[in-house]
Predict the 3D structure of the following.
Amino acid sequence: MNSQSEEDYLKALYHLQMESIRVNTNSIADYLKMKPSSVTDMLKKLAEKNYVNYQKYKGTSLSKKGKLVALQIIRKHRLWETFLVEKLGFGWGQVHLIAEQLEHIKSEELIEKLDAFLGNPKYDPHGDPIPNEKGRIEKMNQKLLIELKQNQKGIITGVKRGTASLLSYLDKENIKLGDGVKVLEIIEFDGTFIVEINKRKLTFSEKICQNLLLETYD
């Protein structure tokens, strides 16, 4: 059984490997806010368990075994975020830290029942894909609001870059996952979108439109 600390390292490596195949120790230390010497000790421990491929001065990468564990942790994290937002009414900006704690629950049966209870969602509240029980991630089929044209419609599936200020704004305006959006007008001068959501007319800046993810339909 993996410790919470080991799981945090594997998840961090998964995210960091999206930018570089091999990740250096300082990058991991910065990401986790740990001392490089402590990171090195943990990487050696994870290498002994065959979770990572570690070479001194050459960086670290996840092994096949380590990647699967990382994806399972990410799966739990994103399912818990979805549950907290959809079923308990938490705001988009509130759920990350809570899910950080819940992701370390070991019961596979609980997670499978949670997944079924939520209707096997493909995305979490921030628009990130949820791995299935085998660690597979379905290809995302989403568009940013900025890509839509006048009179096009879509359903909100998440945000591209969930800054605290954006998530706070969405919570304040009571904009939720699953809300339908129709583009009423696009102001060419400054990229402003006038949209209809839940029978309300709202004005979105270009920056908001560049970060709001939707599943589109005609």
Q: What stands out?
A: The two ends are 48 Å apart (CA to CA). The chain has a mean pLDDT of 90.
